[in-house]
Each structure stands twice: as structure tokens, then as C-alpha cells.
Amino acid sequence: LDEEKFKETVHKLEQESGFFFNMKYFEDEVHNGNWDEVEKYLSGFTKVDDNRYSMKIFFEIRKQKYLEALDKHDRPKAVEILVKDLKVFSTFNEELFKEITQLLTLENFRENEQLSKYGDTKSARAIMLVELKKLIEANPLFRDKLQFPTLRNSRLRTLINQSLNWQHQLCKNPRPNPDIKTLFVDHSCRLPNDARAPSPVNNPLLGSLPKAGGFPPLGAHGPFQPTPSPVPTPLAGWMSSPSSVPHPAVSGGAIALGSPSIQALKHPRTPPTNSGVDYPSGDSDHVSKRTRPMGMSDEVSLGVNMLPMTFPGQAHGHNQTFKAPDDLPKTVARTLSQGSSPMSMDFHPIKQTLLLVGTNVGDIGLWEVGSRERLVQKTFKVWDLSKCSMPLQAALVKEPVVSVNRVIWSPDGALFGVAYSRHIVQLYSYHGGEDMRQHLEIDAHVGGVNDIAFSTPNKQLCVTTCGDDKTIKVWDAATGVKRHTFEGHEAPVYSICPHYKENIQFIFSTALDGKIKAWLYDNMGSRVDYEAPGRWCTTMAYSADGTRLFSCGTSKDGESFIVEWNESEGAVKRTYQGFHKRSLGVVQFDTTKNRYLAAGDDFSIKFWDMDTTQLLTAIDADGGLQASPRIRFNKEGSLLAVSANDNIIKVVANSDGLRLLHTVENLSSESSKPAINSIPVAERPASVVSIPGMNGDSRNMVDVKPVITEEANDKSKVWKLTEVGEPSQCRSLRLPENMRVTKISRLIFTNSGNAILALASNAIHLLWKWQRNDRNATGKATASLPPQQWQPASGILMTNDVAETNPEEAVPCFALSKNDSYVMSASGGKISLFNMMTFKTMATFMPPPPAATFLAFHPQDNNIIAIGMDDSTIQIYNVRVDEVKSKLKGHSKRITGLAFSNVLNVLVSSGADAQLCVWNTDGWEKQKSKVLQIPQGRSTAALSDTRVQFHQDQVHFLVVHETQLAIYETTKLECMKQWPVRESSAPITHATFSCDSQLIYTSFMDATICVFSSANLRLRCRVNPSAYLPASLSNSNVHPLVIAAHPQESNMFAVGLSDGGVHIFEPLESEGKWGVAPPPENGSASAVMATPSVGASASDQPQR
Q1: I want to staple 44 with a disulfide (CB 3.0 to 4.6 A). Which of 15, 580, 711, 754 is the partner?
Q2: Which helix (H) or strand (E) holds 664?
Q3: How far apart are alpha carbons 534 and 31 in whole angstroms?
Q4: Are 859 and 809 in contact (CB under 8 A)?
């Protein structure tokens, strides 16, 4: 219909079918102020009261219509809109409706402070449209309706042609030039003396049908043509449509009077696909690749030396003759001596100055580029030779030297994989600092493993490998179980590039014969078979937004190519110029900022603008680079690592990268102040320190900063527990109180980081907000400035239902929605859902008994809540339909903790019975359970709370009990580390990870607060009561009951006290962090970590 210009019919069909929401049409109607058509079109997809996003969409439209009537001084029209359109919102926010009504009394509604910046009609509509688009993209009712399905041009005609070809193929007497004139009946070639079909001249349906001579040759596309297995629609064309964009979180919460805030939408536009090429047959065997969704870099890692970089808002149209732009890294900022030749490098996806390196002798190095510190150095070793295949054992005996072919981080940086030149891949888990642990070893391929990448088919983290045995294999990243094997290449597979479009996951692979193939996770064969330029070693990568596909290859003769592929045809669209005629080695490349390509060639780094085939610039990084150096950008494109001669890695930086490195270096120098007799970096001798691993394996650290060496030689000189005993030794603040409460039962920072929410034992919620001002430009929480205890203008309180119970005796619980709009809470009575803007109770449900004792939102769906109950059950409740979906039984006492892992798709629960259970979130079956190990000689209360919280890696979790802290691995439900409370010491009241999971903040009954390193559960800082409690309370029983970590600032936490006070803590600005991590204890293979006791009266002697 669109191709035939039936525009009104198209939009009517869109609205009535609700199949596709045409954002461009919607924008045009809003810009033109056609409000009736705007609402009519919307009504095909949502109603006002469907959800909070829909409510806010309709409110913004009607508010704009109302303001425009007022601006034209058309009071009757404004009154009509107020009564007919806006009054429906008064039931949700009566105060707002009153304020809107009062605008009628003003000569100019801009006299209202919130509307003082309202401009003219055109600009106001544009501002509103920005907000509407965000709300629509965030609204689940529009999910999958904003992206038009992938259709080639004239797809309907193509199908008609194929149908007619099929019919003609079945004719008993097929004629060479069939005369097909109607679609009303099946075609059949008639004998020459048969009557002719009616003339189609007057039939409007056939006016644009192609003539018989325009049909594709029957032999090429006939029904009996042998083809590969069928291809799902999303693989039917080489990226023939723009990718869908997951929108950042949008507050669909309170509707407001003021104009929506303008925030730049970080959505690079997809270049239009080639519309000039017609496809008479859409289902040939040229199956193709699809665009990678924007934001892909957080989901899937790409092939060899590729990491797309995000640079929101960067336009492609720019002057092609300019000099090298300032945002390219050009300044040599660091020179690192690796010790052997780097073969592969990868920056950490989150901590962007951490560089992982694999070398030609099998070494792995982990560098903190900012401080020039090598955190870890590992030499190649098979972890368990007995489990290796005989061919591998024989190969290692014959030639023990093994090279690293590829190192790569997982999307969240919790794991990394290493592919070796002999058979195996090794996966390590990374826990920050120098804490790197063996995770999985897989005998993956016969011969070399040439590439490794992470992907998430079926939302399950997997590792994909390829090798000399001409296969691609997919492994479960948690267990090492093989999921898929793809066979079909006729030469060793050189590289892989996992990719996804909407719900379709697939893999591209290149082999040494130059073939490119694509595979779905269904073991049904390759979907693509193309020739790569160079026909030898080729890698592929997408731009960060997934709209452009590139490959880089080198032929056996040394001729190198970087090309961009035509997304519609599966053909080369653009070939970039500027390579040396004969490259001395295989050229490596990378992409950054949706704008630039870089490659290592001719002893230099060469850069291209993606839109220009001519070389943009080249740098030699002060000389000494390899002939074809290995290169790797960090995620932001501010740093670029490049391999040089003499086993050197150079890191070049742009201005942002230099600032980043300077910041890290300053933090590092602060932390190393206690060191004595420091050796200058240039004179530093190579030293080796043996550090015990979690499972007793030793790790060698070479070339470490002298601070570490000093620590190993004389820990008593270098490291000492940081004691905070005076108010002047940290920044702490007791939050102002407008009302007295007896004790704080629950505490949490809002996800935005600018407020703290507390639930008191009397069932009342308290909210403190920091204001944005000259002293606090960000408006984030800080211990340097007091916040305001906030209440809406109505003065109402968020108070839980308490039923017949005494709230002081109840077990309170609450959970906050991701966008901070709603809090779900209970204090022994019904569960209440509160609006955080108005404090109004939106709903109550689940009257006791049993009472709710713990609440947790499902990470993928805010409508699903896990509710722990007083009767030991866990109810999986759908808020939208008001229905309990599942009831989980496995505990014997009340539920005291719940935590979801969105990587493993499990729910971990803990109870007052000190039992831990793991539940599968797909079917809610119990997978494992285990009783907490209570330290010997310790008795525990009959109903002692056990809390659980997932580590940032979503695989390990923290267990908090009055007798201990422990770290568990989820899949095996195995205790990896435990810190027991000494029998004579005060019990733990609460603990939580810092936002980066590197620290654990722990409160005790004696009012002590301790900071542990999570990597080894060793104490690094102790805050004594005298540092934050006044002298009048120091001998009382006031102590923290709950502790909460800031969601963005890893060194900020808050505690809720038994006297109703809330304190927020930060280290001194001069210190920057809570103490210094203690050095590991050599020779300790115990899972129970040695650590000083924490009670105020206990000594600092280590305990076992």
C-alpha cells in the first residue's frame, strides 16, 4: 500500500491492526497539531488507563492542546478541553488538576513558575514530542511495534511472481512465454486453440503486474531448486532494515504540569538501505546478515580484535578534507613492558583502563594502564591434564610452547576467555584488583583454537569458539557443556562474530579459504556463503550502533583490504584505500565511535573515516611499532593499545583518555602513600610474589609496583588496618529529622543516587532528597551537604497497612522500582504500592496471614514480584493481573532474603532457618538447597535473619548472617569464602556490597562498622562508634540495624540506627577510599579467610 501511495489507507490499517506504529506519521500529526487524529491513531495501540506510560502520553498531548487554547485566549475551548479531556486525570492527581484549572484565571499562563519557559507553539510541540517518543519507546504495549518488519522492495510482487512461477511449473503443457492475465484463478497454460482469458485492461488489480517477460527465469527460482534449510525471516536480507533500539529507562511515573525536560535521544539514525535494487525473487540462497541492535557492545563480544565503540550523537556527514580530528587517540601516554610478544589485547568493558593481554608464549597479563601496574601475570598451564584428550597430551609433549590466539572479556567484565594455539580455551572469573580465578577449562578443538567470543542465545551466556578442525562450537559459560557444533567450512575457521537481531541470534564465521558463513543456533547448516576480499585471514565487525558492517582481510600475498558491506545485497559497498602494497603480516583492525576505522599496517596505525575511502591519517606512536601491529580500542575510544617491538605495548590516548589516565594515576598514588622506600618506576626491578588463589593455586605477579614488593617482604611496615575513631577522620552526616521514629528497619538509596528512603518500625516511610545547587551541581547524595526530608505539598505520609498487628513486632520489607517511581512495602499487614512523587497509596494486596517478610522485583519485568512469606513460602505474584503465578516451598521458617540473577536466570532465597535455595525462574523449580555453615562453637538465635545479595558478576552472591559473612557460587551452591564472627565479638546486624561489588559494608551490634575487601573477605577499614555517635550515646545500646550502599559512588554508604537516626558516610576527600586492601596471606589455602576481628574491644591479631 505504501509503495502504491495509498497513504491514508496505510495509516488506517496501522491503527486498526495495531501491528506497526508509524512514528514518522505520528510526529507529523503532532507537529501539525492534528490532535483528534493523534489520539485516534494512538487509540489503536493503547488506552489512557493501560499503564503509567500511556497515561502520561495522553496527559502530555491534552495538556499541550489546553495550553495552546489558553495561548490563543480561546477560553471556551480551554474549558471544554479541561472538562472533557483533562478531568480524567484528576482521580490520579487532584492537586495537579486544581493547578491546571487555576491557569484559567491568569492573563498569561506563563505567570505560573513551572510554565515560565514555555515558548511558542512550534517549539513547545517539538519539546513535547521528544518526551512522547521516549515514553512510547519505553511503553511495553509498543514493544515490537515500532520496527517495521524487514521487507525488500516490492515484496508482495515478488511473492506473486514466485506463486505464478510455481503454478507455471505445474502446467501439464508449459508454454515458453506464458500469458498470465489474472490472479483470480490459478494459472494454467492452455492449448493453442483454447479460449483466451478475459482481457485485464479494465481490471485495476492488474494494472501494475509485470508482464510475462519480466518474470525471473523459472530454472533459477523454481520450486524444485535445491536450497539450504529454511531461513527465518530475520535472516532474509543483508541488514535490510534499521535495528530496533532499546531506549534508556524513562520515568513513566508522575505526570507533571511543567514542560517535559529535553534530553538528547542517543539514537543514531540508520542510513537508508538501497532502494534502487529490485528483487524479483526474495528467497534465493543468498541469505544474509542483519543489523546489530544499538547498544550491542553490552550484550555480545565480536570477532578478532573488534569492539564497536559508542559515540552518541555523532553525525556521519562532515568535511572529508579535514586533518586528523582531536578525538582520535594520538598521544603516547603509557609504555608497558609485557615480557613476551602481545598477540591479543582487550580493554575491560566497564573499568576502561584495565587491559588484558595474551602473548606468543601463552602468558596472560592484566594491566592497570592508569597506574602502569601489572596486576596479574600468568604463564600457560593446563589445569587438569588428566581430563585432556590424548591428541592434546601428545601435542604438548611434542611441542610444549603454546601461544595465545585471542583474549576477550565477557560483556559485563565478570569473565574473560583465552583461546590457545593448542586445543584448549580457559575461562577465568574476575573479581576486581588482582583477584582472577580459574573458572572453566575446555578441550575445544583438534589443533589450534583461532577465536573465542561471548554471546547470549536464549538469554544464556555462552562461549563460542572456532578452530583448525573447521568447526564452530558453542559452550555454556557457566558449566562448560557443549550446546552446538557447526560444521560446513572446508578450511580452518579463522574468526567468529556473534550477532543478534531482536530475538534472532546467529554467528558469522570466516575461514582461511576466504569463505564467510552464517549460522543460527539450530544445527541446521550455514545460511550464507560469500567470498571475503583477500580470501585468506578475515575478521568482521559492526559499527557500535549495528547499522554498518565491515571486514578486514589479508591475502596470502600480503594484499590487505578493509571494506564496508552493502547491507541489502551482501556485496562490497566501499573499499578503503591506503594500505601498504605488501603487508608484512595479517592486518588487524577495530572500529570506534560509529565513525572511525583503524588498522595496524606498515609500522603504523592508520585511521579512516567510515564515510571516506581515502586514508584519514596515520601515526607511528613515536616509532618502534611492529610491521602489522595488533590494536585495540577501549569502549569509549579514548585509549588505543598497540603492540610494538621488544615486547612493548604502547597506549595512545586522546584528551579524554589522558584525563582518565591522570585520574586513575592520582587515585593510585593516594593509595600507595603508606609505602616506604618507594623505587621509581623506571628503576623498578622485576619481582615475583606468590599469591595464594582461591583454590590454593599460586599466581605469579611480575613487574608489580614496589608497594606490593614491600608488602610481601614486611607487611607490618606497609599495611595497617585503617581505624576511624574520630569524627574528623571521615565525612559523616546525620540526616535531619522532621519527626521522631523509634528505629530504622529498612534503608535504600534511590536508583538515581539523589535520595535515601527509609522504612521505620512504626510503618512510616521517610524520604530525604539532595537538592541541585551551587555547592552540589549534580544533586547527588553526599555527606558534605545535608538533604531535606521531603514530603509532597499535601503533607500525607507513606504509611503501611498494619492490620491487627503491632508494627514494632512485624518484619518490615520494601522494594523500589528501577525508575524510582514506586515503592512496594509491607509492615506486617497488606502489601502497599506507593507513588514516590505523591506518596499516595496506589494499591494494597495480599492481606495476612501469612504476612510478607521480603520483597524483590523481577529484574526483567517490574510487574512480577517475588514475595517471601512468614509461613516459609515464596509467592511469585503478577501485579498487573493480580494473580499468584507460583508458590515455592522449600524453607521451614520465614523468608528473610531474596535475590535474582539475570545472568543465570535464577532466584536465590534465604530464610530464618539458615537455609539457602536456588530456584529456576523459567519454571520456578528448585535446583539446589543448602544449610548455612554455622561456625563451630557458635549458637544462633532461633529466628536469625539470613540475607542474600548478588555480586556484580551475577554468579556469586553474598550471604549475611549474625555469625558470618560468606561468598557462595550459585551454580554449585558452594561456599567459596567465609568470614566468621569471633565468639566473643558482637554479632553482625547487616551487610551489603558496594555498588561495584569490590567492598562489603558491614554493621555490628556494638555500633562498629567494618569495610571488607570482597575479593578475600579481609578487613581493610573499621569505623568505630566514636567517629559518628555523640558521647552521650557512645555507651548506650544505639547501633546500626541496616546498611545501604550508594548506587554509583562505591565509597559511600548509609546506616539506619536503632534510635531512628540515619547516617551517611564517605571517606575524607584527601583519602578517596576506605583504607587500603590488605595483602594476601601467603600459603593460605583455606576457604575461611584470615582477618582481624571487628569488635571494638578485640585485638587486631589474625584469627583462623
Answers
A1: 15
A2: helix 655-671
A3: 51
A4: no
